[in-house]
Amino acid sequence: MRPSISSALLITLFLLCFIHGATSQENLIRESCRTFAKDDPNINFNFCTTSLQAAPASHCAALRGLGTISFRLIRYNVTDTRCMIRQLLKGKKLDPYVRQCLNDCFELYSDAIDTMKQAMKAYNTKRFADANIEISSIMDAATTCEDGFNERKGVVSPLTKRNNDTFELSAIALNVMRILQTRSD
């Protein structure tokens, strides 16, 4: 049996709408990241687009949804970094200074997990000023962790990439909230 012309037309229209919707959302990610990178020196366009596009449901999210995704990415990064620190601390031949830095970072990231929960609650209830404070403190935790290693010459932080990712993901979330706030004012 041949499909009727109307069935073929409906299928074609559905596919075009689906493709257009995915393209529109991909454009939202690209345009948002372009704006963020232009306005904030802490955000790299490629990091922003790659991070957001890799997240499930990002291709059908509006700006508020991209904010939720950025919050989840921070939470995953913070949680995974804390787990990595725990594994590093199991090393028997750690320099005592590095061990102390890792212990400090473990505490900072442990606190950041709780802070992230508060930030998500604030974001979900549109208390952007409160969420901003919480996310900013997570950025401070990542910076403080990295600075601890840099205080002693010759010590290399094993957490530099993770600290930088936490910082940049947080900057993305702050920029999403900034735009959402200006739209609702």
Short structural summary:
With about 180 residues, this protein is mainly alpha-helical.
Could you characterize what this model shows?
There is one protein chain. The protein has helices at residues 5-39, 45-54, 63-89, 96-124, 128-150, 160-184. The protein is an all-alpha fold and 185 residues long. The longest helix has 35 residues, at 5-39. The protein is elongated. Mean pLDDT is 88; it is low at 1-23.
Indicate the mean pLDDT. Answer: 88
**Percentage of residues in helical conformation:** over 70%
Low-confidence stretches: 1-23
Number of strands: 0
Q: What is the ordering of alpha helices and beta strands?
A: HHHHHH
Q: Give a short account of the largest sheet.
A: none
Cα separation of the termini = 57 Å
Over the alpha carbons, how many angstroms does the gyration radius reach? 21 Å
